[in-house]
Amino acid sequence: TSQKYKILKQWYQRRVRGQFLPPVYPATQLRLQRALPVCQFRMITAESCKTYEEAVERLMSLQSVTSTVQTSEKEAKTQQFSVRNSNVAVTRTYLERLGVTTADLDELKVIHVAGTKGKGSTCALTESILRNCGYSTGFTSSPHLMEVRERIRLNGRVISRDLFSQYFNEMWQQFEQCEIPDSENSPPRFPSFLKYLVVMSYYVFIKERVDVAVIEVGLGGRYDCTNVIEHPALTAITHLGYDHCSILGHTIEEIANEKAGIIKEGVPMLTVNQHYTSSYPVLEREAREKNTAVVRVPPLSHYPNPPTLNSETWSDNISLSLQIAKRWLNSNLHSQGKNIGAQLNGDVPSLEPAKAVPFKIPEPFLRGISTCQWPGRNHVIYRDKVTYHLDGAHTPVSIGLCSRWFKRCTAESRRKVLVVNTTRDRHLTDFLDIIRQDIVVDLIIFCPNIASNQYIVKDCEWPDDIKQGMIKRAHQNAADWKESCSDIPALSFSSVEEGIKHIETQTESSNQRTDVLITGSLHLIGASLQVLHPTFLDDGGRDQLHTGTLSSGTC
Question: How far apart are CA 100 and CA 92, in angstroms?
Fold first, then answer.
C-alpha cells in the first residue's frame, strides 16, 4: 500500500542520513529492502557522493543495528550463526554483482592471514617487504583507527579520499542498478558496512591491478567475508589465543578450527610456534583434508642477520613475514621462469615446500622491515613533558608483551599513568593484574572509546546508546577498581580528550615528566590518535617521531 511505502521510504531516508534507527533484525531488514521498489529507493540514493565525507556518511548508514536488539541468548546465538554461516557466499554474490569473477580474484595473488594476535603487523610487514622488492601492493586490514579509508592501502599508502569516493560511487551505482532476484535467499541490494569494505578492497585491488594483495582476516577465518578466495598464493596463521570467545569458541581447539578455515586445497599454510600447542592437531587435520602442510617458521634469532628490535612483540611476526615473502617471491618468479636467488643476489636458498629454514635476510627484506609503519602498535608520541605510548593490545598475551615494551621504553624516575579500556567479553581486571606485574603505575584512568564530546569524526561515530553505555562502563570500572584496590588511585572520564587534559594539566603543575601507556582496545587507540595527532593521516602516517617503528632503536 502507499502507506507502507511511505513508512519504508522514511526508514531508508533516515538510514542514508546516518541517523540511528530502531532495532531491526536482518531478516526484517531484508524484507524491507525487497518491499521497497527500485524506483522509490533511487529517489533516496541515486545521487553520487560529491565528497569523502558524504561517502562515509552513506557507508555508515549500512552499519548493522542488530547489536542493539535485546533478545534471549539462544535467539542471539541462532541468528549470529545463521549470519556468519552465510558470510562467504553473500560476499561472493556482491562481488559477482560488480562483475568480479573467481578468476579475477585468483589473479590477485592473494596472501591471506588469520590469527588472534599479530595478524595485522604480519600483513603490514609482508606488504612492506614485497613493496621494497619492487612489487605493487594492496593491503586491507581492520579495524580503522581514525578514518575508514585506512582499511584499504595501495603501495603502502592509505587510499586517498578522492580515490575512496570514486570507487565507493562506482560500486554504489552498480549495486543500485543491478537486478535483485525475487528470492528469500537473495541478499539485500547493498552489503552491510563490513562487507561493503571487504568487497571494495577486492574491487579496488583488481581495478588498480596490484601485483599482490595482502588480506587480513576480520574475525575468525572460516566464515569471515574475506574468505572468498578459492586459490590464494599463500595462507598464514599468527599466534592463537582467547579472544572473541562468544563467537569463535571458548577453547583453543574451537578457535583454531575457525582460523584453519582459510587453509585451501594444495596451498601451504605458514604459522609461528604457537603458545598453545593444542592448536597444532586442529591445524594439521585441516591441512591434511586440503592436501597441504602446516609449515612452522623458525625463531627470528636463528637467522644469520636478524634485525635489532625495540620490542619482542614483533619477533615471531617478522620471521613469519620473511617466510611468506620468500615463498611468494619464489612462486611468482618461478611462474615467470626466473629464480629467486638471482632476483635477490643469491641471498635466498631454493624453496623446500615442507620446511621453513632460516636464511640470510637480503637487503630489500631488511629495508622493508625497517621502514614498515603500523600505527597504534608500539606507537610513541611526544608532547612537551608527556610521552604517550600507544598499543592496541587486547588479549592477555599481547597485554603482557605491551607492558614489558612500555617498561623497557621508560625511566623508573618518571611518573606512570595508565589509560585503559576494554570491549565485549574481555576482563579488565585480568589485564590490569598482568600490567602491574611489570609496571608500577601511579594513576589509572578509565576512558571510553570516545575521542571528544565536543567534536566527532564521522568515521568513528558511535550510536548514542552505545556511547552512553561506554561512558557508564568507564565510570563503573573506576568505582570497582577503587573498591578492590585502594593503593593505586583511579579516575574516569567521558572522553579521551578529558583524560589527556587532566594528565597534561597535572604534569605541568607538578613539573614532573610523565610516561603514559594507552592500551586495551584498538578503538581506544584510534580515539587517542584523534586527540594527540589529528593530522596523522594527512601527514602521511610516516612521521618517525610519531609512528611505531618495527626497526632498531630506542623509544
Answer: 9
Angstrom distances, CA of residue 474 to CA of 13, 219, 388, 442, 521 = 34, 25, 20, 18, 13
The pLDDT tens digits for 378-395 are 899 999 999 999 998 888
Owner of C-alpha cell 624516575 = 413
User: What letters, b where the CB count within 10 A reaches 16 and e where it falls short, cover 512-529?
Assistant: eebbbbbbbbbbbbbbbb
d(CA 254, CA 49): 43
Beta bridge partners of 440: none
Q: Residue 545: how many CB atoms within 10 A of its CB?
A: 9
Q: SS3 for 34-91, per residue?
A: HHCCHHHHHHHHCCCCCCHHHHHHHHHCCCCCHHHCCCCHHHHHHHHHHHHHCHHHHH
In tens, the pLDDT along 403-444 reads 999 998 898 889 999 999 976 555 677 788 888 888 889 999
Which residues contact residue 47 at a Cβ distance below 8 angstroms, ignoring those fewer than 6 apart? none
Instruction: Assign 3-class secondary structure to 98-161.
Output: CCCCHHHHHCCCEEEEECCECHHHHHHHHHHHHHHCCCCEEEECCCCCCCHHHHEEECCEECCH
Residue of 117, 71, 149 lying closest to 537 (CA atoms): 149
Three-state DSSP state, 440: coil
| Residue 104 and residue 351 in contact, taking contact as beta carbons nearer than 8 Å | no
pTM (two decimals): 0.83
Question: Which residues face 271 on adjacent strands?
Answer: 237, 296
Task: Quote the pLDDT of residue 426.
Answer: 55
State how far the Cα of 219 lies from the Cα of 294, in Å rounded to an integer. 21
Task: For residue 99, give the nearest of 152, 177, 160 by alpha carbon.
Answer: 177
Q: Rounded to whole angstroms, what are the CA distances from 451 to 98, 247, 317?
A: 36, 28, 30
pLDDT < 50: residue spans in the chain: 1-2, 4-6, 9, 11-46, 65-79, 346, 349-351, 542-555
CA distance 374 to 390: 11
Amino acid at 406: F
* Cα 439 to chain centroid, rounded: 27
Residues 490 and 478 sit within 8 Å (Cβ to Cβ) = yes
CA 369 to CA 78: how far, in whole Å? 44
Nearest Cα to Cα of residue 428 among 395, 472, 471: 395
Contact 222, 262 (CB under 8 A): yes
CA 381/CA 543 separation, integer angstroms: 10
For residue 483 the three cell numbers come to 573498591
How many Cβ atoms from other residues are within 10 Å of residue 226's Cβ?
A: 26
